[in-house]
Amino acid sequence: MGGFTSNTKSIYWPETRTLIALALPICGAQLAQAGMSVVDVIMTGRHNATDLAAVSVGSSLWMPLMLFMTGTLMGLTPIVAHLLGGQRNTDIRPAVHQALWVALVLGIIAAVLLWTVVTPIFELMQVPPAVARESAAYLTAVAFGMPGIALFQALRAFSDGMNHTRPALWISLVGLAVNIPSNYLLIYGGDGLVSLFGNGLPGSLQQLPALGAFGCGIATALSMWTMAVSMALYTRKGRTYRSVSIWKTFTPPKLSGIRELVVVGVPIGVAIFVEVTLFTLIALFIASFGEVTVGAHQIALSFTTILFMLPMSLSMALTVRVGNTLGQQRFAMARTVAWNGIVISVIVAAINSTLLWVTAVPVISLYTSNADIQALALTIISLAVIFQLSDSLQVNLAGALRGYKDTRIVMVITVLSYWIVGLGGGHWLGAHGIGNLSEPMGVHGYWIGLIAGLSTAALLLAWRLTWISRQE
């Protein structure tokens, strides 16, 4: 027993500390970037209802595009982690350069889409003309920032693969620090400045126009480019990156490097896109159930999304650790690292479930004072407590598999589990029930479908990790 305890401490505790040290800055960066969306909603909401609706509708279009780009560029992280673990530092620079070329192309494509297809989409969705006009202006401005955020995500994936996750946290906070005053100045214009500083300001500042949603879009694009430039400067000056020197010379586009990134990264982007669209479609289906149900669903989803940041960050850190170990050709150790991360994810799930259960009532009361919404939200969160385990397990199993560069099977499992079991099963339960055994379950049916979908994904991904770690 003594030998087992010593061995456990010598392997698992140092690995656990390393994994958590990598994950916490990632979590902070995710929260900072989420904070920008919160600031946008609060500030436009205080301006007027039309601008708030315009930003909300517009965000539902550009956020999935950004998340697809982010997922695709995350493919660079295991590539860099493998090369770093194998001490092949000279191969890291060209790999990063290919990712930057891909990021630039993806960013430009995303910008063109936001400039060209939003008006037909708004007509199809029957968005009110005033909201559609303001939202189109907002997206026109945001589009200029899409190449910037793509380049930032590529450099962040490189830094994460180098076991250096803190820069993304600090630079995301810089982006938030730029976003807040820029939003205030551009949304409210001179009137906002006068309300803050009085009439002593120069007349030119007092006469600045209030741009509303369009100003919010400009501030968002400005924050995106600030983060990109800051990350570029840091990766050029930071000591951690001197062994790689990615800015010393620049590699032109090469098909082999781009192909490797696309093969690893695009399935990650598709998997993330599928997850986002799952929740979007559920929200659309639930909309017919009335305002109370929609409000309760959004409260439960918002609360659980915040808590999900930690398992997701742990997953991204696990990709780095598994990739590093595989790059060192330590295949048995890579398997240990992967399953140690899965055990930690179970502990994190237990913590999240406890937090949900203990804090549900006071947190719901912060969102709304409506007693009907509060009561329904509490029943939904009771279901959310159950799926914390499946959710944490599936995202960390996927993270470990990304460390093995095994992303295509993960994509297939994700699509099948989320859309067929999660969305299909949830819609059947919500709209039809279980034959003679149950009436239509409404919003609860959709959340039971989520539990089933996430559990299915967790089981299939656990099988896949077991198989591939034994193959290695």
UniProtKB/TrEMBL annotation:
Keywords: Antiport, Cell membrane, Ion transport, Membrane, Transmembrane, Transmembrane helix, Transport. It holds the Pfam family MatE. GO terms for molecular function: antiporter activity; xenobiotic transmembrane transporter activity. This is Multidrug-efflux transporter. GO terms for biological process: monoatomic ion transport. The chain crosses the membrane at residues 61-84, 96-116, 136-155, 167-188, 208-234, 261-287, 299-320, 341-367, 373-389, 409-431, 443-463. The keyword Ion transport applies.
